[in-house]
Each structure stands twice: as structure tokens, then as C-alpha cells.
Queue: 4 jobs
Job 1
Amino acid sequence: MFKKIIQLAGTFLVLTIILTACAPAATATPAPTSVPTATAIQAATAAVVQATSLPPTPAPTTDPTETIKPIFAASAHANAKAQAFTDWDTAKPQEVPAACARCHTSAGFQEYIANGKVAAGIPAPAGTFECKTCHNDTANKLSSVTFPSGVTIDNLGPEARCMTCHQGRESKLSVDKQINDFKVKDEDAVVKPVKGPDGKDVAFGFRNVHYFAAGGTLYAGQVHMGYEYDGKVYDIKTQHVEGFNTCLGCHDQHSLKVKVDKCGECHSGVKTVEDLQNVRMPSSSRDYNGNGDTKEGIALEIKGLQAILMTTIQNYANEAAGTPVVYDPTTYPYWFEADKDGKPIKDKNGNPTAYAAWTARMLKAAYNYQVSVKDPGAFAHGGKYIIELLFDSLTDLNTAAKLTTKTDMSKMVREDAGHFDGAAPAWRHWDQNADKVYSYQVDAVCARCHSASGLPLLLKGSLLDSPIPAGNGLMCTTCHDSSNMPARLAVKDVTLPSGKVVTFGDKADSNLCIECHQARASKQTVDKQISDYTVTDPDAVVGPIKVNGADKAFSFINAHYLGVAGIWFGNQAQIAYEYDGKTYAGQNQHPAADGKNPGCVGCHDVHAGVVKTDLCQNCHTGIQSLQDLRGLGDSTDWNGNGNVKEGIQSEFQSFQDALLSEIMSYAKTKAGAAIVYDANAYPYWFSDTNGNAKHEPDEKPYSNWTARMLKAAYNFNYLSKTTGSVFHNARYAMQIDFDSIADLGGDVSKFTRP
């Protein structure tokens, strides 16, 4: 018999947590006509900070439990009629099984947190939760939770009680285990039953994550509740503002209701739980579901992706698995065989027939679909993680050869812009420490720019001398003054790695940008290494020196990435290697594109990072895209190819190509070992042992460095890794390339040095 599952939020699982009250209404709230203004959002933050920092309320003179009891009594955790507590009342034997008692009985929960398990079933009816369920000595000390994936999250504090149950019962590991247990070799083959230890058939079936697994959504890629596809990177725990970053920060622990009044202080227009579905922050600028609407709430973006995934799963079931499928969100096990009209096929007892034509590929996608819908507050708990899971499921289904009705994903987007792309290496590089243990701590030396809190701490005078927790990108408070919203943090000027001090103007917003976009090395860094090794012949391969008794190699120096300040300010910055005796262009004198903000913020959207090409049209006719900008140029044939109509991007690329070619030639003829450049593998320069000009996996980092070659390779990599070099200061960039080629002994006769 198939049993109808309960519809009321919060009654399946237990304890005080996460957006139980956030279950979507039957009809989705219409999308807002505009995104809440940054001013409204940020101005309210100051009030929140003030409110959350007030002195504690004096202790009441009456027993507080008398006030709390009726509040708790009205909650889902005390609903004696809920199926979450009554489902086993007529079972045989009449008890709540040990596996379920942990979260569906008060006694089971207390036994579990005390002993790590429930030894036996609890007699039914077992009743609901009580005060002592969560208020006891063991619960008060509880601070760690182990998720179904085996990952343990420590130092949780009171919300550990919530996540002991609100974590789901499956994970990527259990899905993979089933696939491995059935020895699946073909992802698209329908998996047949196997004989179990008792000789009975064991079916390859759907894995149900369980209900209201908000803790798994919240901790995202750290606990692997969703099916995370191999080779993909996922966001970690969702970041939110201080004071609203935990279960109890957002939910009343007794009523379970969301503190909507607090939400409304930052999110304009939020007065009800349903309104939260319309929330969308400026950092979420992408059109994830590809419907053309970038102003609808994240909840609606997710709903769009869910609908697309459902259609794709059904297409796959028809075309690849060979058996149509239909989904019923209210009836276990949710996926059923369908007739030609898409209706569930009934068995002789009138019950829908559970779907049995599962393939491994379909199982993964269906599992992720279920993960996304069974936590009704997923959009708030881990919306970006859910988007990644849905997107990757669609991508994987599309690779199936038997699926002829492919889903058009050309307009869909998986990730945010760079500053908010939680799956990018810029934010995920430090998840593991040197011992390959997951610590999610950003090294102090990197935390300034690769954590949400590093830069504001530094600007307030703090020394970044210890690791800072990793996140999913920047936050509002990274660039905005939390005590004076919506003002940005004020930066008078910026000291670069060369020691040079630059500014776009006193406290100009763009100074904030170049606090990070400045590189981490300079001409002085390169010269110091050459000096430390006492190099007298610039063309001699430099051997190692002894440092503290160990050999230290003369090695490539990486300027780091997107060091725009070094290009924009030219010889005032000296980030690129400028050759002695040469003169170089200074600061780019391009006027403020928006007429008021010089530098970065005048040309780029401060949140999405994209170039404001519409502003370019004020001076450059016909500019509608970034590609059009690449076509801009002047009448000088800088690269000497006879084409004066090609854009400056093409002119500059010719310089870069020539420099790389010259470095490779020099390596062979002067350094004695061939070299190859791989922009996607650190440290980028490798020994080309087989001479095929391609980096192979077994080829090691290049070691035959000479001082002359080091300078040129440093410049090539710096200009390559600083996207937009040609726009930020084309003349300076071409001067650097020209002089690097010439210093290596290359022929520059066809080029014109700006």
C-alpha cells in the first residue's frame, strides 16, 4: 500500500529549524516588477546591526516557560495529529522503528543524542515533542552533527539540535553506493534487480532524501546531500549577515516561524513568508533558468529550473529508459509508471505502480529534483547550491545518446559573476588544508581578497595574521560600511606590491576595487630574486641556492591574476617588468565613462562586473557588445601586418603571440630545454619534454630559468592573466611586450613600439 504523505510544513522531521514556515503557497507569488534597491537593502542593515547589538533584555520576573508553552503547543513539533507522530500508531509491531524514532519521538531523540543511536523501536503512540526533548543536559552540550555523507560539522552551538534531524537521510555517497552495488557499467541501461543475501530480488530503486532536510541544503557542498557530479565544484555553507546566519537566527525556536519582521528590515517589500520568494540580491545578476527574467526571486528561478528538469527527466524516461514516468509529490515513492496520457498506471489494488525502469543517469537527476522540492525553503537555505544541482542534472541528462529531445540550455547559467561565484577557484582553493583535510579556512596572506571579511578587517586596521573562514564570494559588508549603509568603505589611496602609491582620487570608489585588483608581485620582486641569486650572466641557467640548509630553486614568479591597477597606472605602478633605460606610458587618461566615477566603477557594473557597453556608445558609435569594443582601434599598424582596420585587441594579441614564440625559441637555443605554456595549470610554464608544444600530464614545471627568460615569462603571464589589458592601457601593454621580445633577441622590426 502506498501512503499519502503529510502536507503540513515542519511535521515530518523534528526540532527547531529552518524555514518550515517558508513552504510555498499553492500559487506562486508573482515576480516583482523590480529588484529591491540597494539603498533600501543596505540602509536597513544598519538598523539590523544596531538591533542585534542591543544589551540583553532583563530577565522576566515570571516563569518564561508559561509564556512559551502555548507558542510551542501551536507548532508542528507539538502537533499530536500530524502524520510525523502518528504514522506508526497502527503499525505491526505497534512501534516507531529505531531508524525513525531518532526524529519522530521525544524519547528517541534524547536517546540518540546521548548514545549516538536508538537501540530499539519506541512503542507507539509515542506522542509529540516536549520541553525536555531539547532542554536537557545532553542537548545543551550538543554542538556537532554528522550528516548522512559521513561529514561532521562541529561548533554548531544550539542549532546542532535542529540539524540532528533536519539533515536528510541520503547523500551523494548513498546514491553512488547503490550504483556501485549493482555494478552499473552503462549509465543509460535500465538496471535489473539482483539477488539479495536472502535470495530475494532487490530492485534498483529511487533514493528519497527525506523531508525538510534544510541543514543539508544550508551546508551545501560541505555535506554533499545533493548528487554532486564528479568534476564539478559546488558552493559551501550559505553566507548571510551576522545574526541571521544560523537556524535560530532566522527561526523562532518554539513556534518555528520565520522572523519575517527582521527579514523586512533589509529586504524591501517583505511582509510575509510568501514575499521571501521574491527576494533577489544584486549579487544574483544572472538568468539561471534562461527565461529572460533577471528580476524574479531566486525561488522562482529555482522553480523554472525544476520545471525544465522534470520535462527533461520525462523525455529521458520515454526515449532512453523506454518507460514513461510521472511524479506525484504527495505519494511515496513519488515516481510512478505512466500511461500514454501521463497518468499513473494503477495496480490491481488501485495503487500507482512504482517506477522500476531506473537507469543510473536518471536516478541521479530524479534524486536532485527531489532534493530541490522537499526542502520548501531551499531558495533561502542554499539557493545557489540547488541551482548548481539542477543545472548539472540537466547537463548530464543532455549527454545521453538515447535522449533525442535535448534541452536547450544555451540561455541558462550555473554560476554568479566572479565576485559571487562560490564554485570558482578564487573561493574554493582553500577548502582543504596542506594535509588535504577539509578545513574551509582561507590562509591569512590570501584572506584579504579571497574571503568576505578579510578586506574590511584590513581597512579597519586589523592584522590578517590568522586564517579566515571561507565563503562563497564577497558579501555586502565586504565593500559597504556596515555602520553607515549604503556608503562604501573609504580608501584614500592604495600601496601596490612595488611600493608605489596610486589613487583614482581621494576616497574614490575605484580605489576599493584595486585594493585587490593590483597583483602580488612587481618589477622589484623579479629584480630581488635575480639579486638574491647573484646572477651575473642574464643568459646563464641559474641553479639553486642554500636557504636554511635546503636548496631553493630559481623559479618563475607569478604576478597573480586580474592585476588591473598595474596596467591602468602604467609606469606609476611598475607591476610589469619595465626594462632599465626604457620609458613607459603612465596612467590611462580615459575619462569617466559614466561622467562621474573614474576608473573601474565608471566602466564596470559593480556587482555583475560586466562592462557598461551602453556608456561606450556615448563616444564610440556602433558599440553594442564586448566584441564590438575589441574591434576598436586607431590608424597605426602596430603589429606590422598591413591591416589598419583590425581592432586594438588583435594588434595586441599579435604582440603576445610573438612574445610567447620568442620565449619558446629562447628556451631551446639559450636555456637548453624546451618550454610550453599552459594557462590552465599552475605554474603555467612546463618542460616540453616530447617537443610537441603541448603540456602533457607528466611534464614537470620548467626549471631551466635564466634571468632574461624570467623577465619575459613574467611579463607574458601577467598580461595574459590580467583580462582586458589592452583596454586598460593598450600602449603600456604593447610597450611591455615589445621590450620583452627585443630583450630576448627577437626580431621586432615589423612592430611599432608605442
Job 2
Amino acid sequence: MIYYLTTILVYGGVDAIACLGLSQQFGVAGVTNFGFIIFQAAGAYTAGVLSLPNQSANGGFQSYVGGLGLPWPIPWIGAAIVGGLLALPFASLVGKRLRGDFAAIGLLVTAVMFNLLVTNYRPFLNGAAGLSLVPSPLGGVVDPLSGGYQFGYGIVAIVLAALVYLFLRRVTNSPYGRTLRAMRDNDVVADSLGKNLRSLRTSMLVLGGAIAGLSGGVLVGFINLWDPQAWGYAETIVLFAAVIIGGLGNHSGAVLGAILVPLGFEEASRYIPSIGPAGLIPALQWVAIGLLIVLFLWFRPQGILPERRRKLATAGVPAGPVVLPGAGAADELPDVPTLPPPPVVARHPGASAARGEIVLEAHDLARIFEGVRAVDGVTIAIQRGRLTGLIGPNGAGKSTTLAMLAGTLLPSEGRILYAGEDITGLPAYLRARKGLVRTFQLASEFKKLTVIENLVSAVPGQQGDSFRGAVLGKRYWGAQERQNVERAEHMLERFGLSAHADRYAGDLSGGQRRLVELMRSLMAEPQVLLLDEPMAGVHPRLARQIGHQLLALCAEGMTIVMVEHELSIMDEFCDPVIVMAEGRVLAEGTMAELRGRSEVVEAYLVG
């Protein structure tokens, strides 16, 4: 009985460690790593060859790379290091397309190829024979077959799982963890706010790989062998099932899933009587796992233990009036005719320069999609401290031009200069760090972050918004976090959304989500703000209030470029206004001037 309980403890600890690593990658950061099991296998092999004697031992009946005979815990540490290092070529392999389906398929194919290579080519890692007679940790000091040793091994596995859980909880609950969750929800928007997606994903692959490698090292020391066929890609599906069923984004759910799926199914199958042809019960087990995944994704995608809502708002800021943008919301609007400019927006160096200075310009800008020139030779110059409008019929290329200015899309032709610097090839996150920030045509909030988390996530230079800062803990970044939360609370108060601070942003109305996106962009401390239809879905009266606030921000030194279809907004607030049609600049001037030009009237202003 003691040996059975010990086996349960060890496998439970190993499965929990592995599921925690996958939960951090997939549930928190949104990296779909279908090659996860390869990291566990690599860690197991590393621990084996670090603890085995040289190849001439035991009659030299097996070959392997290494054979150093190192004492415990060095093999386990080596397993974690190799698991993490193995992630680097994986990240380089997928490169900039390390997202969504591309990542999932690329990592899955790599895992399958790696498994076939190891299994079928004997000179490489001894082929299908694998490793045997792997020494148990401290086997020369304590009898590995004794009940006390076996039970102690199980306790160590559980303790390691608890330590991994606490470490990942520390990372996830930091500003860095918030950035990972923002990337998971909407990576394009996170990129536009200055988040280095490639660095974030690579770090999560490395961290998850190290944790997977550690779990493999613990397992191989207990079973004393390494069989490459036992680490097939299908095992990754079992771990994914555990994370999905337990609860995406919740590390407690990952531990629960580890207990229910890989451990629970394996043990439950032992008590099913043998029926039908050989292999029927294992096959039915896979069918059951597949059905569970489908059922949970369909009926309860959040899992048994959903991701915990994180509340940042304090009780010190009054709720203020609640603005409900949209039809029928006029009675809910405050009586104040304009929203006061938020003092929380910090100025970048050079923002005090004289109005009229050219801060952003494009020369012969073009973007070609499959032979179609969506933008064709656009040349514009944006003056500092002005609210510049950009109008044109649908398909004129306005949003595409805005995306190229922000770096979300790279131009096919032409140059972009920002504050005199050529930024044509600069990625979006580096442009955002220089103060060039954008919003999007469709509401692009981080749906599973609360409203106040959305705002705080945009603040640049946060101490806890790095892996190192997250590891150092709340004592390192807590004071600055409180200041950022206070800034966000005052921003919410001025926009009338304080009552919604701790709601998920994805649960708000369309107009409210627009306001969240606008506030978040202001929290990013922009020098130049590119707004793509910010008034869409917003009550007309509130839209005018926002327009006045934008003018006030321009008076403080901010530069704003706004794409908008509502001409009354352009009439009242924008000077100059640029008209685009068929991917080209048609005219530029005040709205009064533009209405007097026949080509503009024919292209856009008729009606």
C-alpha cells in the first residue's frame, strides 16, 4: 500500500509541475505550445545522463551522451536548465509568427519530428531503447527500494510542485503578469502599447520549458528509465486537457486538472475490467479525454476554477457620475459641458516646443495587399500641438495609413519620420516607447482584464513589468503600482467610469469600451496620439465633451491625429483636415475650405 500511495504522490507532483508550466504558457500568456512534452522529455534525458556513470559501466550495453555520475540535486537542476535552453531554438524557429495557430502548428510539427528522430535513429540518444538503470537520487546513501525512501520521494515531488505554484503565482500577480495576460487577450494592442511580444513569448517558452524539464527530471529519477516513446505528442494533449478542465489562467485550476486528468484517468483505468480486444481501454480513455475537452470548451470554457478577477481599485476615490454611452444615455450624462483635461498625462521631452513644428511626416507612403495598392503615395506632415483630422470614404486607406504610422503595419514603400528620426522599419512597440501611440478602429480592450487593469497596463516604465521585477516581488514594485492605480482611478473619475473599475472590460457596452481604449492610450503618456474613429458608438453629447478634452490636450503640447466619419466633429475640433480617397491624399485644409473644393465634395462630402 505504501508503494502505491508513493506512486500517486510522485506522479501527482510531476503532473502538477508540468501542468503549472503549461498553464503559465497557455493560460496566462496565450502561447499555444503543442510541443510542450518535448521539454519534459529533454529534462528527463538530461537528468538521466547527468546521474548515470560513463558508457562503459554496466557492461557498456547502452550508449548515451554524457554519463557524468553527478550527485543529486545537480541532475534536476540540469534538467530545468536544458528544458529552458531548448526553448530558445523553438522561439527562433517560429520567430515573429510565434502567435496563434502558427505557433501551435509549428511547435506540434517540431515535436513530432523530434520524437521520430529520437525513436528511429539509434546513434542519436540511443534510439527507441532509451535509457535504463538511471540511478535514484541519493541512491548510494539510502536504499531506494525502502518504503521510507519512496514516501520521502513523493513528499519532495509535492513540495517542488508547491514551490513552482508559489513562484508562478508571484510572477502572474505582478505587473509583468498583467502584461502577459494583456498579450494573451490582444497581442496587437499590447504591441502598440510598447510591449515587446517576441521577448515576452520567448521568456514564457523558456520558463515553461524549465518547469517541464524539472518535472521530467523528477520523474526519471523515480522510474529509473527514459523511454522516448512515452513522451509522444499525444501526452501534450493530456496536459492541455488538464489545464482547460481545471481552469485557464488559474494555477490552482492547473493543479486540480493535473489531479483529475493525467493522474485520475490513469488510476481509474486500472479498475476497469478488461473487455474487448487488446488496447480498447486505453483507446476509450483517449476518446473520453477528447470529449471532455470539447464539452468544457463548449459549455464551460473557463474551466472548473475560473481565472480570478483581480481588483486594484481602492476605496479612496469617489465613484463619480456613470456615463452610459449609446442611445438613451443622455439623462445619465453629467451636467458639466466639457470633461476637464486629465492632469495625469505626463509630457515627453520636447512637448513644449512651439506649435506648428512638424513632428510626424510620411513621404510617398504605400501599402500593397496582394497586388492592390490600398495606400498609394501618401505624403503628409503632422504639426505638433494640433488636432489633425483624417477623413475619406470607406476604403480610402485612412486606417491603413494610421496603422503604418504607428508601426502596426510596415509600409511597402515610402518613409516615415518622427521627430526628425526615420522610423520606417521600427516595430510598433518601440514607436510606442518613443511616445507614438494609437487606438484601433474596432474597440480593442483587454477583455479578461478589469477596466482599471486595462488602464494601468499601459503605463510605461513600470518596475514590476519585467521578469526580474516580478521575481523581486511586491516590495520592489508595490509603491509604484499604488501610484499608477491612483492615476488610473482619477482618469476613470473624470470619464465617469469609476463605478466600473473592477468589471471586466469585455463586459462593458460598446461606447464604454471606446472610452476605456481612449483612457488607456492617455495612460501610455503619448507625445503623438493616433485615434482611429474614437467617437464610434459614443453618445453625441459625450463625443463633443471628448473633443473639447482632446483640444485641451493639444494645448498642453500633445499632437493628435484622428480618423473620424462624423463631419460635425471634424468641423468643430479638427484643424487641419486631410481628405483621402482611393488610397491617396486628395486635399488638406479646414473643413470650410474643403467644402469649397469640388473634387472633395464629389469624392466624399456629397450628402
Job 3
Amino acid sequence: MRTLPLLVLFACTGEKDEPTPTPPPLGMTLAEDGQVYAGIARVDITPTDFETYTDLDGDHSFDGCMTDPAASRTGCEEPFDDLNGNGRFDAVWIAGFGSARAAQGAHDPITVTAVVLSLDGEYVALVGVDALGVLENRIRDTRDMLQADGFDRDRIVISSSHTHQGPDTAGIYGIDEDLVTGIYPPFVESIPEAIYDAVATASAGMVAVTPSQGAVFMSDLDPAFNGEPFGGTNPDPSVDGGINDIRDPVIVADQVLSIALDGADGRVATIVNASGHPEVVGDENSELSADYVGYTRSYLEERHGGLTVFLSGALGGMQSSLGATLPAIDEQGARVLDADGNPTWLDDSAPGADWEFARTWGTLVAQASEAALTDTTPWTSLRVRHSDFLIPVDNPSFKLAFQVGLLDTPDDYVIQDSSCPGFGEDNDLFGCIPSASWVIELGPVTFGTAPGELMPELFWGVPDEPAMVDPTLRPSDRRWVQADSDCVGVPYEDCQDTDGMVGECDCLKHHAVPYRITDDAALGTIESMLPGTFKAPIGIANAYCGYIVPAPDYNTYVSVLTDDGDHYEETNSCSGSFGPLVLGAFAAMRE
């Protein structure tokens, strides 16, 4: 009998219980108090218990047959250990330097490292993976898993380091002549869960931090990083900022950007963004490794504490220290001098220099990241936005890899209907890969992401130098190492879709005149379209579709089925429209 007055009272006053607030996803800290919070975690994904072989000739290449464990048949030269008894070589193929390089063990861990950041209710997860490139379908699966637990799927950026000493995550480094995929299923299938675990652990362990940040160009740090043509003292004339760019024009991505996140008990996390292929161990190796990236992380973690996440930069061109000469350093990171106090040099072609060269470059990158940390501007904002686009797959290399089942992407992840522009009408079009670019603002630092190996000029622009415009100057210019004098009077447009020659001009050595990144006046460099004081690219982010080449310099003739000359990047690019799509995405986000 007492319930009726209570119900009447409730109806009259409108009073009711306040709704229970939705808790932050994965237990993260989302306080609106002007304080930056960070958490970081690492998951080891190194393959174990995989099958190996007997390298009888010591060439680091499997010369046996996939279904002959004892190498008993003619032409099957090397046996393998058939651990699971299925009669087939279940190898972990190393992603780099051609096919058939089967792993014999692990030199150092292959890992996933995630840092989660929040400020005033906004948040983002930045993840570094020791992988050639995690394809979009695996990224999509990861984002689905996180979204199911309330994590905004558009607030995670996953960057592959592109290590050429790690397991093949694309599928193109198995045995190409036999169309054997390079995918080791247990490894690639573990990646989404490992990323989820790293993000979840980092989210649950967030603490208040004080950021510091900054960026340096290695070419400005020390003349020892530059050859004589680039104003330095390095005995290798091709080196600029410690990088040997093998595609004309020589335009290097030698910026190292760093963010340190310090808590009450010391360093929580360090974020390092740098370019350069993690391939400097070279091809005479059969052990899995993060390459120089592992040394960079170890150096910083041993000296400053916390964990370091490495985010790859602009790798196209191709950016690499392989083939370069570096100033020698000892195990403590100090320069090794001769009796007269002059620098000594480390050449990666010296016998046994492989791991020492990787340690040296990794340490030098780590030291550059330390030198970059000069800015203590407080963060007043954290902002994440993205722009979606579809990447057409029309390059013969990628089409073939899809069609024969080499790639780690089932057909149902590829858009093959009318929503893919031109599908069903363009016979060269296999389908479209969904992708996007992100802009991530962290106080004075802004990252712009690209789903592939970005050519540096797309981010920073083309050097303002005469030879970029005047082709007659190229044969003797420091940035045009492979220029063909017979091409001086040939418009590059005549070379873009040919069998390799126009008159006496070798089109595979020729490049755009004037050299430029776009013919669209509405587009600029990515750097010019980003806000912030410190700006950097994050490469191979949330997808991997090969190299991203400026459209005016893209050679449509080149493919895996042809010679490539100085246009290797086109053999491993989804499309000639990749560059314009990425630039267009940043233009759409420009304010």
C-alpha cells in the first residue's frame, strides 16, 4: 500500500537515477584535466618451433624441394627438418633480398610495441610492428577487435618497420619460381591479437607524463654523416645524412623525430620516428631480426628506461644505409678514433660487418633521437583525424601476386564491385584496397601517415636546385648519379610507357622534367598541409601497398615482368595513382 504514493511522487517530480557513465575503453585514463597520460607495452611475436633446413652450400638460400625432406630426388639439394611430419617444408621465409631465404633461428626478438596517449578526453594508440608490412586485412581485423571493446577504430595507427630480416608478412618472399607463398600462417595470424594485447595492456597502465620532443636532420648533426658532395667528411660520396639513396634524384629522409614521455618514476616511453630500410644486416643472414631498429630501441631503453616504440618514416627512394660508410663507434656509443684522433670508418662490405653495421646505425639513430629532445612545450591538444580512399590494384606485379594466391589477403578483403572506380571496365584493374591517411596532432608534433613506402619528396618537397629543372645539368649533378646524357632532350612523358628506349635514351634511367611531385596546382607537399612545429611522416601505416611514387615520375612500363633500371619502386607499387591519392587525402584534411 505504500508504493502508490512513491510512484506518484516520482511521476510528479521527475526525479530518477543518473545514468551510469560509460567506462573508458580497455581501462584507459581519459581525464579532462589538461594532463597528458601515457601507457606502453610490448608483445614478443617471434616465431618458435618452425622448420629449418641444412644449408649445405652456406648461401643462406634453400636449395631443396618443398616436399622432399630428405633431399632424395634429383634437383633437391638440401634437406629440411619435417617437424610436423606432413612431408612439406613449413618454413618461416625472411622478407628481403629475393626469395627462398628460410629462417634458421632468431637473432633478436620480433615484437609489437604500443603506446597509448590521452589528453582531455582525446586519445590515440601508436603501434610499431617489426614486420615488412602488415596488410590492410590484418589491420582491419585488429581494428574490429578493438572496436568490439569500445576503442575507436579510427584512433589507432599501426606502422610496420619494414624489416628485411623479419618474417614475410606480404607473401612475396617464398620461392617465386615455384609460386610458393612466403606466408607462415601461425605468424601472420598472431599479429592482430598481439596488437590488441599490447594496446590493451598499455591502456590499462597509463600514468601522468610530461612530454618533451624535437626533430633533427642527421645531415646537420655531424659532417661524418655526409659525403664530400653533400658538404661532409664521409669517404663515401653517395652518403647524405647517413643514407644511401639508390634512385635519382638523391633526396634523403634523414630526419629523426623523438618524443620522450616522463612520469613521476622516470621515463615511461620514447617514440622514435626515422626513415631508412631496416635491411642493414644484409643478405648473408638466416636469423630473424628487427635489424637496426632493435638496436635503436635497446640503446634508448638501457640508458633512459621505459620502452621505445619505433615508427617508420619515408622509406621510398629507396632510403637505406646499406651500402654506405658510417663512422665507427664502440659498444658504449663513443666514436672510435685512430692514433691521430681521426674518425675510423665502418664499411658494410667488410667481412663480418653485418651485425656490427646494424648496431652502429641503430645506435647513431638512437643518439640522434636523444639530440632531438630539446623542446619542452606543453601539450595543449591531442587530435586525430583521417581521410579514406581506395587504392586501385592495377600494377602487374601486385595483380599477379593476388591472382596466384601469394599475398596474405583473401579476395573477400579486396573490393571487386562498382564501388571500386573502373572495376569491370578497366581490364588492368584487379580491384581496390580500402585505405586512409591520418593526421595525428600531439601538442607541437604532427604526424601524417601513408599506407606504403613514401618517397621523401612527397612529404618534404623537391630541393630548390637548378638540376631539378634543367636536365642538361643532371649528368654531372650530385643528385643525378644515374642520369643518361642521351635523355637530355627527351620529354619524360615520351618515356613513361615504352619498352625502355626512346632513340638513344634509356628511359629506365630517365626521370621527370622538371622533377616534381604533382601536376595538380591545388596540392602541395604533405609537410605543407600539416599544422604543428615538428612534422614527420609515418610510413606503412594501417596498410601496405608498396611504394608511393610521385605521379609525374611513375613509369607505367616497369613491372616485375620487365627490367626496371632506376625505377625499381614501380615494380612494387599497387598503382601509379597511389601518390595522388595520398596527397589528395591530406588536402582533404587541410584546414
Job 4
Amino acid sequence: MSPDDLDGIAARENASRKPIQIRCCTAAGCLAVGAESVRRELQGVLEQHPLRDQTEVIGVGCMRLCGFGPLVRRDPDGTTFAGVRPADAPAIIAGQGPELTPLDMHQPFFRNQKSVVLANCGIVDPERIESTIAAGGYRGLRDALTLHSPAEIVQFVTRSGLRGRGGAGYPTGVKWSIVAGSTDPNKHVICNADEGDPGAFKDRTILESDPHRVMEGMVIAGYATGARTGYVYVRGEHPLVTDRLQKAIDQAREFGLLGTDILGRGLIFDIEIRVGAGAYVCGEETALIASIEGGRGIPHPRPPYPGKVGLWGAPTLINNVETYANIGAIVENGPDWYSAIGTPTSRGTKVFSVAGRVVRTGLVEVPMGTPLREIVEVMCGGAPKGARIKAVQTGGPAGGFVPEPLLDTPVDYEAMAAIGSIVGSGGMIVLDETTDMVEMARFFMDFCRDESCGKCIPCRTGTVQMHGLLERIGRREGTRADVLRLELLADVVRHTSLCGLGRSAPNPVTSSLRHFRGDYEEKLRGGPKS
């Protein structure tokens, strides 16, 4: 396929569209509450309806308001319905019916979002590459291959200011430069899709909804760095991701967007899926590499870093799902366009999966620098039933608790670190005034204790001891000496563990002690003092 063929495919796809499209969300959240039955009923009703020649039913990805599914949108007017049942199909097809109340698409949840990564989520059919191409998919790849050298693409990524969306916020352009600068002919590109933070679902949803956007970023990365092979490491608990991603890979090969001579420009690059067994530690890049190689998924000391010695000893670029999903747009629109979004130190947008004690749960994409309060109180409606928000937990087990008085903190890597939390990979759990912060700290320590690979003593035994102290305090049997031991252990585990799991495991504990020490003191009153 030549670069010009993309325009032809898009033109044919757009010409074949019927005037009315009924889009039914088929992401995991909506499927869990009956979206497939709704889609089948919509299709069945349509086949017998007078509007069948003017209307089509399309299965699409996430429409963002995940707690209100199944979601269905009737285009071109954009009327969107929540909580749809199969019995609602006739009214939706007919475009009328008082039994259905459409969502207000001008409410802050939708109005305040800025879509880059999620631009085509809820619009394209994730199982048809033609749908993606018609919506602009692979134009960034076409521009990269026809207008820019590999070195220019690396400079684009560097100038954009994009930082890794996997949690650490490391400058993406630096990683790309290291791999691109290697003379080793064997190089690899890895997409880390091992999303395992409690409450996080944005990477899974991106791959379910728009897999070609991530794949496009990986192919551009292969072109820029000289790598020929790519791997997507997916958690085994996400079968829908694996299924849709494999279909997307097969279709991309068929259309000449993977394999040899991509777009007729001589580029060789292909992608394979590797399915993990659910070990949280495999989100750490050296453990992930060990797992792909067929070994036990445990971290290894760094240096050497994967950019120099990675998969099978070769230079390896590892980025997160959301990171790759930004690349095509950066190439197509230019690095200055992207760097104009966000803050001077945190450029672009950030996708968050918002869950917990909040009125509107789902996916939000906002410019970096957006205050937490705007996300959880304005966009997501705050705590339900008039309750007061007590804290927002960001960054998963590696993150911390942001108390309500600090919700005006902007979503910025440095600003979040200054208050004892992190932006993280994109999980955001809202906690209301009924939440026991000691119990929340114990929950996250329980998670880290179970997920420790056991290689290093500080993480293997320190998390067990910290969990025991938290249980003791939670039973109102703790003393102030126990709180002191907890703080000392946290310091030891943080500074002596081998990898990021152990080094960050104490964060929820230290964050809860920093901002909610009263919760601990209240429990100590019920037990012996020392």
C-alpha cells in the first residue's frame, strides 16, 4: 500500500456511511452491564425498520462516562443515552420516545475535556481498520515516512516535551535518543500495557477502543529508533484487549501497515502480543523484559538500562500505552502544537480513570496543569449524596493521598510530588468523609505485600511488617511506638528496595500519616499507650 492509498480508503469508508449512525459502546465497562445485548437488539430492530436504508449500528469503544453504561449515541446529532436497555432499541432507532432522557453533552464532564489520546474513542469501530483510517488513523505514520527522517522524528518527540505516561514521567525523547543512537542492528520496541493499579483502567480502555492509535505510535518509534520488532505486553486479565489488539495487528499486516515495506517506503516493523500472568511487578521494565524472554518476572539492577541492554541483550525502547497513543498526533500536528498544551514542565494532556466515591466515574482527558478539584468536583460531580470529599488517591500503590484542602494542586509532575503524591499512570480514586485512612493504607500495603516478587529483603519482609503494624493499629491495639516503627520501616523500605515497587510501597502509608495523622491518633486512643 502506498501513502496515497490511505486517502482512498478513508474516502470509500466515508462514502459508504449511512446518514444516521447509532454507536453502541462495547468497551469492557459497558459490556459488563449488557451492552452486547443492547447492540444485538438495536441491529435486530433496525433490520425490520423503515429507516434501515438510512441507519447503521456501529460497535465502538469507550464513551467515557463508564458508570452510566450501557451508553448509546445517535449521530449525526450526537444525542447520547445512558443506562440503555434492549427494550429501548425501537425508540433509539426511531429517534423519539419520552422514555429516554438524553445526557447533557454540554455538562462539565464532557465540555472540559481536551481529546488527544481519546480523540477517536467512542467514534471508531475498534475491530475495523477502515473505520480508524477514515478518522485519520496512520496519517502521523504517513507523514513520518514521507516528510521526516528518523532523526527528525526523535527531535519532534523531544521538542514536544512528552513525558512517559507510565508513572515516572521520564522525558520520552531522551529514551528514544538513547535507542536511536545505538549502532546495534538488533533493537526492539515494547509497549507496557501491564496496567495493574487498583482502580486504574485507562490503558486497557485505550487499547479496547482505539488499538491502531497505539500501534501507529509503536511503528513510528520503530522508524525513529531503527527497531524492527515490537511487543505489546498485556495483562492476562484483559482478554478483550488481547482479542481486539490481535485483530488490529492482523488487519494492519493485511493493509501493509505492519510487516515489510510499510507504506511502500522500505520500513520493516512488526508487532507481537505477549500475555502476562498478572504479576504487578512486571510493570517494572526489567521484570517485564524477563517475562517476555520466558523467565521469571523479577526486576534486575540498573544500570545497564534497557535503552542500552534490554530484551535479549539488545537496545530496547519501553513506553506506556498512553505514551505511544500521543505519538501520531505529535507527528501530524507538530511538536509545538503539543507543547503548547499543559504546563512548562508537564506538556500535553493526561488521561485519568476516575473511580470511587464520586458521582460520575469514567475516563477524563485534560490538559496537564488542570487542578484536581476541577476533575473530581466539577467534572465528576464530587462525592454522592452531598458527602464531603476527604481525599483523592492518585498514582496507585506507588502514589499517595491528596487531602481535600490540597485539591487545588495542579496535575503536574512536580506539583504532585511536592505534596507527597504522584501523577502516576492515571488511576484516581475519590474517597469521601466516611473513609478510614488507616484501612486505606492497610489495603494498599496488603496489595504491595502480595505483589512483591520476593527478590530483595527490604520489600519482601518490610511490607509484611508494615502490614502487620497497620493491622494492629486498625484493631485499636497499636501504640505510638508502633506508629514510630511504621515510619522507620517506611524509610528503610523506600531507600533500600531494589525496584520501584518496593521503593514506592510505603507512599500510601507516609502520605496518610502526613495528611491524616488524626485517623491514626483516634485509633490509638482505644489501645494501650507508650
